Hints:
The complex is a heterodimer of chains A (362) and B (361). Chain A has 8 helices and 20 strands. With 362 residues, chain A is α+β, with helices and mostly antiparallel strands. Chain A folds into 2 domains: 4-227, P-loop containing nucleotide triphosphate hydrolases (Rossmann fold); 240-354, CATH 2.40.50.140. In chain A, strand 16 and strand 17 (313-320) form a beta hairpin. The mean pLDDT of chain A is 90. Chain B is 24% helix and 34% strand. In chain B, a hairpin with a 4-residue loop joins strand 16 (301-310) and strand 17. The A-B interface holds A 38, 133-138, 163-168, 170, 174, 177, 195, 198-199, 219, 222, 235-236, 282-284, 306-313, 328, 330-332, 334 and B 13-14, 16-17, 38-40, 163, 166-167, 171, 174-175, 178, 193-196, 199-200, 219-220, 223, 234-239, 286-288, 307, 309-314, 316, 318, 329, 331.
Amino acid sequence: xxxxxxxxxxxxxxxxxxxxxxxxxxxxxxxxxxxxxxxxxxxxxxxxxxxxxxxxxxxxxxxxxxxxxxxxxxxxxxxxxxxxxxxxxxxxxxxxxxxxxxxxxxxxxxxxxxxxxxxxxxxxxxxxxxxxxxxxxxxxxxxxxxxxxxxxxxxxxxxxxxxxxxxxxxxxxxxxxxxxxxxxxxxxxxxxxxxxxxxxxxxxxxxxxxxxxxxxxxxxxxxxxxxxxxxxxxxxxxxxxxxxxxxxxxxxxxxxxxxxxxxxxxxxxxxxxxxxxxxxxxxxxxxxxxxxxxxxxxxxxxxxxxxxxxxxxxxxxxxxxxxxxxxxxxxxxxxxxxxxxxxxxxxxxxxxxxxxxxxxxx
Amino acid sequence: xxxxxxxxxxxxxxxxxxxxxxxxxxxxxxxxxxxxxxxxxxxxxxxxxxxxxxxxxxxxxxxxxxxxxxxxxxxxxxxxxxxxxxxxxxxxxxxxxxxxxxxxxxxxxxxxxxxxxxxxxxxxxxxxxxxxxxxxxxxxxxxxxxxxxxxxxxxxxxxxxxxxxxxxxxxxxxxxxxxxxxxxxxxxxxxxxxxxxxxxxxxxxxxxxxxxxxxxxxxxxxxxxxxxxxxxxxxxxxxxxxxxxxxxxxxxxxxxxxxxxxxxxxxxxxxxxxxxxxxxxxxxxxxxxxxxxxxxxxxxxxxxxxxxxxxxxxxxxxxxxxxxxxxxxxxxxxxxxxxxxxxxxxxxxxxxxxxxxxxxx
Lengths: 362, 361
């Protein structure tokens, strides 16, 4: 059982705000991601939970007990850092087994645990090597294994996958999620990569400039962001944002952008005519076609000028009426020079934000 | 701008760890080759051998037709950019860019012109007078790239240049590299563990693992016809599903079976597998090529969805077919964990590897 309550936590470093009145409850046995760009306050929050940093204000409760003033060693919280050193004179096996030996486990128990974690991290063939014989990515995995091998109420992971190979990251994401389920572990995972949260997290907390912007089920946060900041930072490639203006005509309400016009009469309660807004549509909600097709969708012409193949998907960069648009398609799209295309999307995927407050209107 | 030829390169560290294993390849003049593989595969070692920073245990390095194995790095005229940006911290960005030109004893006017041109191209103009050490990682890396390419080197070696910079700057830098390549027709070797960088940038891709060159081919071919089961797994996100199967001839078909899996292919198409004396092969199917249905379909195998992730662009499903786990990807499909599904592997999408992991079909 582990329920972690973070209550009104604030922290300044040399007069600069790192955390600004952050409150959230981390639920037992769930995978929670703290998402935000560099400088958002993720690491500070994790360090306060671990007890290596003291908050200026606020309290931390673990299972109802106020642990704000507890020393790190009295919290039973395990922290995995972005990078930390291995013992150079010990083999990989001994490095991983070290925290278990300190806990006086039997040899066969240790063996089982070390093998299990090594297998899941793909390092079982490296067990007899010394740290100097490992590549950077391999050493990182050993360090992760050493932190995860021990039992703790809460595991805090600070961007542990950042320096890892893409392929290892992919496997690790699945492994961490499985570990959270299989061992009923409570994981708090800080990351600047939206994909980490989307692929693993039950819940996500989006942070920016020391503030908690939104906290909820991962899919809810992704599809219904509170405001334009959450929409922009939580998604990769970033959401397309355009200026828009609401206009009334023949009893219908339309949103006009430099690229398209769409009927938003059904939202007329929430939108005012002749008012400016910002609209957002995620790159993967856009589709492209080389020919114009008649469908019940919004469409506009564009010129694709750059493509990036990512696995079996393609990110296309296009220009239309001086606007830069990103389109993410779930197949491999090979471009022969500049290509004129039509871009389509279902208007149901359009997010509308207030131009001044940034809050989501629809 | 030279052609690079590597002949039977082997490198062993500490007489114990074989980093590069009898590797031969050619990089044609003016082409960009992406050297792709997991960390520890030997790609950085190979790069350093080309630059002359490591002397190989055996084998030779040629630029065009000349053997350079014994030539020291300073005399190879090879430009290199590393994963962690290297700049002269106390010098201005301008002086950093001018440095290789001063070493070549160019006139002040020419230096000024070249630096200005490079700064323009890399969007470094606003930073020219600032100290390089005070800039963020992206500007520093842009500066080290500029310094590497400002002189006309024989070839340019880039060792994971984008790994340590933020995603937005990564895209900009990637576009710069592509444009530089297109304009200058420079020979570039680009080391990366990131398949998307490799697939996007490389004219050809060299996939390495355990010091061995597994495949050297176009991006289309490494994706569609991976030479080995490792390449099949490594390319793609997630990689190809690999399922060990027994096979037997039944009438005009060959039937492949494993716990929960049963697939058949026409005998004429798949008869090559009969050469496999172990009686077992590995069936490969990409997650994005698996067909899913909630209703019964012909040749559909029954499975249960055990994991469902909505990652925006697509949905990733883990499917349990009796004892076999398979990953599928589908942009549209919505399903609850625990739900039963019918799963089909389209014949034309199947790949078959022998027990050594080499492709047969």
